[in-house]
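Hi Y.,

Following your request, here is the sequence exactly as I used it, all 325 residues.
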Amino acid sequence: MDLLRHWHPVCLSRELTHRPRRVWLGGVPYAVFRTDGVIGALPDACPHRGMRLSTGRVRGGQLVCPYHGWAFGPDGVGKAPGTPQMRPHTACLEAVERDGAIWMRRPGATGPFPAVGPGGFHPVSVTRHRAAAPLEATMDNFTEVEHTGAVHWMLGYAPEAAEAVQVEVTARPDAVRVYNRGPQRPLPAALRALIGLGPADDFIDDWTSYFSPVHTLFEQYWIEGGTEARRPATVRIGVVYTPVHDDVTDIYTFVHTNAEGSGPRALALRLMLRAFAEVEVRLDASLLGRLEEGRGGLEGRRLGRFDKALRLQRQRIERLYRGPA
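Below is the corresponding structure, written out as tokens. Let me know if you'd prefer a different format.
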């Protein structure tokens, strides 16, 4: 299973300082570091005696092992100060900094880079949350709205309105789209005024999931009550699921809005969206830690109409993401 043929975010940009950092992908540790405007990513074990390179330091454009001083550049080419004629090497990964995160994959891989930074929209926040759950179960949670009434504060639909929510699922060989429409759950009057909502508006949660890497792009907006007129406010969210270990998944959330300008209303809306993303994703991560389910956890389960996409997504994860290149 070659997960490194896909791009994955492995930490936030702000988490990678002047010190190297240990990250995990698929149960394997790597050392990522900055040097001379370049991001390096190497296996987190010195090829000499196995010391964690992430506990070393960056000096002279190289990551220096703290054990014997062997040093390696982002290309994996090294030097051994005590034996100058040696030319040690270690494997290296392709690494980039984009959209507020550090991403990596195997050199020579050709998988597409996920479009988590929608063009024309304004960035609000980038966050990382860790869920004690497998990749499949984590994606299941983010791609059904039935749980939102019981779990979330603002997101989704009230439990008493769940029966009225329309759910449409469309599948392609490489993607699964889910369109949800239903009555906006009750919100504080000040928040409704900030977003520009009426008392009878419908909330639209329209998302598409892709599988190289595994990620979901959400578009959320409102329809004016009693009409088909779309309200101006729109939120776009990219969620990328990085499998840290078999039962641990990092959730990277990239929030964008169409709210323009630097006035008080636009600023307040961005602050609200930033707080919303932090609180709501934290609730999801906490919930997933109490879930008893593995990769095959849907077998034998009683699934409802909100769960139609889950089997489709798991099939594509197995074929497009975990399967052979």
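Residues 122-321 form a domain with the Naphthalene 1,2-dioxygenase Alpha Subunit; Chain A, domain 1 fold (CATH 3.90.380.10).

Thanks again,
Q.
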